Amino acid sequence: MPQDTKRINGPEGSTSYVAFCKDSAAECFEERLKQAIGKGDTREDGRSISESRKYFAKIGVVSTAKGSAYIELGNTKVIVSVFDPREIPKQSKFCGVGELYCDFRFSPFASLQRKAPQPDSRERSMATALASALNPAVCRHLFPNLQIDVFANVLEDDGSALAVAITAAGLALADACVPMFDIVVATNAGIAGDRVLVDPTAEEERLCEEGSGLENHGLVLLAKLPTLDQVSEIRQHGNVSVGTLWEACRQLSGACGELIPIVKYVLVSKVKKRLQEIDIASDEEDELETEKPNEETLGVASVKEER
Q1: Other beta carbons within 10 Å of 221
Q2: Which of 82, 160, 258, 260 could form a disulfide with 176 if both were Cys (CB 3.0 to 4.6 A apart)?
Q3: Average pLDDT over all residues of the chain
Q4: Phi, psi torsion values for 264, nearest 5 degrees
Q5: What residues does 57 pair with on adjacent strands?
Q6: With bands split at pLDDT 50, 70 and 90, how would you rate the model's confidence at 192?
Q7: What's the chain look like in SS3?
């Protein structure tokens, strides 16, 4: 093959510039844990171990989708789109209950390490967990032999990405007017020894997953239907004792309760805005109807004067 003389070929192997930084020296697990959780169980960002980050939520952000939602939890940013029901592909038999097709993706720029665009095992596992959390909330018996597509995209991952995606998917389904038994909210917690870290960041999640020398370490996710007071999904990863898992679920249930006013406010605000638009449109139609008879009477009067 002819060589491209205008291209400067780089080396076959390269080292990231981060390796030459002074702060890139490998630290032991204990030092990293002390930096993340200081004295008095205060985290690096100033939160207590039972405190969540601030939420920002908005619905109706994707114009081409039937329903959509965007949520920010600290630096974690997730957008979810829901599309109209369609026939289940490659389905030969009639299915009396509809299905949810969930696709979970990380953007290539979502984390420090660039991710390949092809889905990996982690994304497929999270898509399965997303479908498991949403299935009990959707009235699937109302659309037999059909499926609803739910696409979740993580724009930036700073911890609790799956929990944010589940909450955003519940908002997107409600925005799409999909019949539901209840809204879905989810929270995540990291376990490091006897401490339960509600809403961990990406660094705290890595520490909880490693758990070097800790008897209890791992991650726990809980998705809940708040009005029905039912749990739709519990996802646990790591080595966690039964007592610690019970305490983590208790704290996560309380954290889900704190999300309910935010979700209700977003949905009610969208309904009020839609009602205002309908009122304005009806007022404009009434004005047009009142103007037309006046124009007709003026036309008749002008004809009589001419005669």
Answers
A1: 22
A2: 82
A3: 84
A4: -65, -40
A5: 71
A6: confident
A7: CCCCCCCCCCCCCCCCHHHHCHHHCCCCHHHHHHHHECHHHEECCCCECCCCCCEEEEECCCCCCCEEEEEEECCEEEEEEECCCEECCCCCCCCCCCEEEEEEEECCCCCCCCCCCCCCHHHHHHHHHHHHHHHHHECHHHCCCEEEEEEEEEEECCCCHHHHHHHHHHHHHHHCCCCECCCCEEEEEEEECCEEEECCCHHHHHHHHHCCCCCCEEEEEEEEECCCCEEEEEEEEEECCHHHHHHHHHHHHHHHHHHHHHHHHHHHHHHHHHHHHHHHHHHHHHHHHHHHHHHHHHHHHHHHHHC
Please give the Cα distance from 237 to 259 (Å, whole number).
23
What's the residue count for the chain?
307
Mean pLDDT of 183-193: 92
Return the higher-pLDDT residue of 28 and 271: 271
Show the tokens assigned to 55: 């939420």
Other CB atoms within 10 A of residue 137 CB: 25
Residues 6+ positions from 150 with CB-CB distance below 8 Å: 80, 81, 82, 100, 101, 102, 103, 130, 131, 134, 169, 172, 173
pLDDT category at 10 given cuts 50, 70, 90 is: low
* Of 100, 188, 198, 205, residue with least CA distance to 147: 100
Per-residue pLDDT tens digits for 88-108: 888 778 888 889 999 999 998
Neighbours of 81 (CB within 10 A): 24
* pLDDT tens figures, 107-143: 988 887 777 778 888 899 999 999 999 999 999 999 8
Report the alpha-carbon distance of residue 276 to residue 270 in Å, rounded. Answer: 10
User: Between the CA of residue 62 and those of 68, 77, 79, 82, 168, what are the distances in Å?
Assistant: 6, 15, 9, 9, 13
Name every residue whose Cβ is closer than 8 Å to that of residue 58 and which is 6 or more positions away in sequence.
Answer: 69, 70, 71, 266
